[in-house]
Amino acid sequence: MARICEICGKKPSTGNNVSHAHNKTKKVWYPNLQKVKALRNGTVSSVKVCTRCIRSGAITKAV
């Protein structure tokens, strides 16, 4: 379960790097994940969450 947001399920996306000569090589874009201590089901646990979920308030940080 590495590199997957535990809240929204966001995961790496793939595509091509395209050079000026139109050569194509594989490329992976990873989500911006942060390890955060958050309240889940009344307990504090460490979760990997994308920054969009942190900003939108989808989790509550533990104090």
Account of the protein in words:
The protein is mainly beta and 63 residues long. It has one domain (1-63): Ribosomal Protein L24e, Chain: T (Roll), CATH 2.30.170.40. 10% of the residues lie in helices and 44% in strands. The protein has one helix and four strands; from the N terminus they run ββββα. A two-stranded antiparallel sheet has the order 1-2. The longest helix is centred in the C-terminal third of the chain and has 6 residues, at 51-56. The radius of gyration is 16 Å and the shape is rod-shaped.
Characteristic terms for this protein:
two-stranded antiparallel ribbon, 10% helix, 63 residues, Ribosomal Protein L24e, Chain: T, single chain, 1 helix, mainly beta
By CATH, the superfamily comes out as: Ribosomal protein L28/L24
Strand content: 35-45%
**Count of helical segments?**
1
Uncertain segments are none
SSE order, one letter for each helix or strand:
EEEEH
The total strand number stands at 4
Instruction: Report the C-alpha radius of gyration, rounded.
Output: 16 Å
Give a short synopsis of this structure:
By secondary structure, the protein is mainly β. The protein contains one helix and four strands; from the N terminus they run ββββα.
